[in-house]
Amino acid sequence: IKQFLSWEEQHKVEWFYSELVVADPINKYAGTVDFMAKVDGVNTLGDFKTSSQISEEYYLQTAAYQNCIEPLIEDGEKIEQRLILRIPKDGSEFEVKIVPTPYEFDVKTFLALREVHRWNLLIEKLKENK
Fold first, then answer.
1. Angle formed by the axes of helices 57-69 and 103-128, to 10°?
2. For the chain (length 130 residues), average pLDDT per consecutive 10?
3. What SS3 state is found at 66?
4. Could you give the C-alpha distances from 37 to 14, 26, 44, 105, 123, in angstroms and in order?
5. How many whole angstroms separate alpha carbon 94 and alpha carbon 122?
6. What residues have CB less than 8 Å from 127, skipping those under 6 apart?
7. Three-state SS for 44?
8. Cα separation of 115 and 89, whole Å?
């Protein structure tokens, strides 16, 4: 936590939301955005992780959250970056990563994978009913 507080001191952070529950009723998924803030003047969607590393799958997760939030933003402002903050439980080095992949590609990939998941569930259900 001390490393996070140090990061926060080094950046101008204007916190907007924390633990914001979001949903996409059309694509049938939901989640909780850890935070929305302006970080160094940039509109940021952020996700805290306590994992041992930052996995690329988190890029898709943050894109899914952004997909839920952007239609609700009234003044037309956009989320300009997705940020992952890894706060390790084991005391190892704190890590900050701006998601490097394009939002549009990430959200399309997430939604495609969501459909694959739904298809797999259908197949499992059909197997059970035999």
1. 100
2. 86 94 93 96 94 92 95 81 90 89 97 95 91
3. helix
4. 5, 26, 5, 23, 41
5. 41
6. none
7. strand
8. 34
